[in-house]
Input
Amino acid sequence: MGLLWFLVATVQAQIFSEYPVPTPNSELRLITTGPDGALWFTEAQGNKIGRITTSGTVTEFPLPTSGSWPTGIRTGPDGALWFTEFLGNKIGRITLSGTITEFPIPTGDSRPFDITIGPDGQLWFTENDGGKIARVTTAGAITEFNIMARLAGIAAGPDGNLWFTELDANRVGRMTTAGLLVNEFDVPTPRSAPYLITDGPDGNMWFTESGTLEGKIGRVSPIGAFAEFPAPRSFFVTPTGIAAGADRNLWFAELNGSSIGRVTLSGTVTEFPLPGNNGSPYGMTFGPDGRFWFTDIIGNRIGAFLTPQAAQTIPALSPATALLLATFLAIAGAFFAGRIRLP
Output
């Protein structure tokens, strides 16, 4: 058992890096790769936009509107970062040098949440309480389209449409870039609270189910066929952020599970615990350096995760160490998957 714990610690140290955020209790939310090769993220409680280089240097930019609670963030077609202000009821834009502009949303108290680049190259965002999906131009002009549901994640689909999640309605929806609602598909598991969503390398959309006790990852085809895959521990792990990797797998954050999860296209789920099994990963993105980057709400830090396959190829490792990591990684994963479930 001592050898196993040593190998687990070695694997964790090899694949995880963690960088503290200067502002205490900043309530980190979503994260994205910027056009400058850095990672940009939102600090909801800190009311700031953060930037971190791949070497771990953090810079923070305070927002003009106090208490705006920035949440979603994405690189726009103009080379700036665009973000949602959940409580400020605005869409924000920040240049790479840190200049911030804000654009009020027509619907009051709409609580904008996630933002993405649509198949049309325009910026689109969800209104969590407004029940709308909206488009914003790079000049700040906003057009809203009624959906009449409590919305969360949004992403461009391979079919040329926008895909989004409906938290309370327990559905995944599809809308054209002309603003026409095409379909709403009921998620098989009741009260699953579909959350964040991304396109997969298989032509399907993949999403997290934040309300399921089983901690499921969902997949939906362009015609609305579903498959759901529970996490191994499957109890209150609360999947949130999700992103596709260069390895053709989907990777996701477990907010209450203190882990990063991987699901293959065939539905096999593996979990990788954070060092010390401590933290609450939330947002997730694939970085320019080949690592996955995530926000850690409780730990107040930005994490970087190197997939085990990539970790085994690092030149600094001796052949013997690489072999040990490769041999015992599956054992370590199985060990953690069988731990006592969280209360």
User: Anything to note?
Assistant: DSSP finds three helices and 28 strands in the chain. The helical segments are 2-15, 308-311, 319-337. The mean pLDDT is 88.
